[in-house]
């Protein structure tokens, strides 16, 4: 029964993929087309949001400057990227802070606030932000500075390199069989010392920092269980730092049933089984400095229930 369900879902998503890859976008409002929409869900992130925005702007500007042949017009009415903050009715001053940032000239045309009435789940926050995304590509990231915006240009470079539909960040790339496998290291062993050094640097940049043993064990066990039950074909199934082609993301979320932390698992599994092109890039995940983690016992129980449900459905 599970195989037939998987086959039908895969056929549907493969057809959707073929349709969406040929979609063309019209220019936005006569200005430069927005190419990247960065969606950031928030809840009580007053102490982090200003720093995050500054780092995103810096990373995008540096990435654009390094891009060959790319020219930035200071008079452009629409920048090549936008940051959409989906706030779930924060009880601190998150929304007020964002509104103040929107008055600063360099953020005015970049930053957009799209609040909701309450905490409705991480997955639904992404879908809410997607409604307002003008970009050809959608980038999802956390607001607590766990995800370093400096990695965004690497996501973009990777996507362009292979025309991928999804690029996902991985904290466990050393164990991945896709982007930096043992076989690829052996094959490339005769390459230049410079290339080898770059590979080592990438491995060193990958990992988790600031978590205690319990949190690391929880993450590892969560990924292990997901790999055993779902065989997703990526090394980090629970990560949330990703880049999607927008039409791909729209096609995938149309068949999604998860709304919480399981959302990340379901969408990447559906992407792989639906025939979409998926790549990984190494990232460093750093535990939050300000604020409190949203991961509690209820989220862990919800994850386990969602994992079993996902196994039964796909």
Summed up:
With 314 residues, this protein is of the alpha/beta class. The protein has helices at 2-20, 49-66, 94-101, 105-108, 122-130, 152-162, 182-187, 193-205, 213-230, 246-253, 262-273, 297-313; strands at 36-42, 81-87, 111-113, 137-140, 166-170, 207-209, 242-245, 278-282, 284-286. α1 (2-20) runs antiparallel to α10 and α9 packs parallel to α12 (297-313).
Shape summary? globular
Largest sheet: 7 strands, mixed
Structural class given helices, strands, pairing?
Answer: alpha/beta
- Poorly predicted runs are 1-9, 22-31, 72-78, 175-204
Q: SSE order in H/E notation?
A: HEHEHHEHEHEHHEHEHHEEH
Give the overall pLDDT as a whole number: 77
Rounded to the nearest angstrom, the distance between the terminal CA atoms is 10 Å
What does this structure look like?
The protein has 314 residues and is of the alpha/beta class. It is 46% helix and 13% strand. The strands form two sheets. A seven-stranded mixed sheet has the order 3-2-1-4-7-5-8. Strand 1 (36-42), helix 2 and strand 2 (81-87) form a beta-alpha-beta unit. Helix 1 (2-20) runs antiparallel to helix 10 (246-253) and helix 9 runs parallel beside helix 12 (297-313). It is globular.
């Amino acid at each position: 029964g599970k195989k037939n369900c998987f086959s039908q879902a895969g056929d549907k998503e493969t057809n959707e993929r073929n349709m969406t890859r040929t979609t063309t976008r019209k220019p936005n409002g006569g200005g430069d087309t927005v190419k990247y929409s960065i969606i950031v869900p928030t809840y009580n992130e007053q102490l982090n949001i200003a720093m995050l925005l500054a780092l995103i702007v810096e990373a995008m500007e540096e990435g654009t400057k390094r891009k060959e042949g790319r020219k930035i017009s200071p008079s452009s009415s629409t920048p090549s990227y936008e940051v959409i903050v989906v706030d779930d009715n924060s009880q601190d001053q998150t929304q007020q802070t964002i509104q103040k940032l929107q008055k600063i000239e360099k953020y005015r045309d970049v930053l957009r606030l799209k609040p909701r009435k309450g905490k409705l789940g991480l997955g639904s926050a992404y879908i809410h932000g997607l409604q307002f995304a003008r970009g050809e590509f959608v980038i999802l990231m956390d607001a607590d500075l766990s995800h370093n915006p400096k990695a965004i240009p690497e996501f973009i470079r990777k996507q362009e390199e292979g025309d991928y539909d999804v690029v996902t960040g991985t904290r466990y790339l050393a164990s991945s069989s896709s982007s930096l496998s043992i076989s690829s290291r052996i094959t490339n062993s005769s390459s230049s010392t410079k290339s080898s050094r770059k590979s080592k640097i990438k491995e060193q940049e990958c990992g988790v920092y600031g978590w205690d043993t319990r949190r690391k064990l929880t993450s590892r066990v969560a990924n292990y269980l997901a790999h055993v039950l779902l065989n997703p074909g990526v090394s980090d199934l629970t990560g949330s730092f990703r880049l999607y082609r927008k039409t791909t993301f729209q096609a995938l979320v149309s068949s999604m049933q998860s709304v919480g932390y399981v959302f990340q698992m379901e969408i990447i599994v559906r992407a792989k089984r639906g025939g979409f092109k998926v790549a990984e890039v190494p990232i460093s995940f750093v535990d939050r400095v300000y604020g409190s983690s949203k991961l509690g016992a209820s989220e862990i129980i919800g994850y386990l229930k969602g994992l079993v449900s996902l196994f039964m459905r796909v």
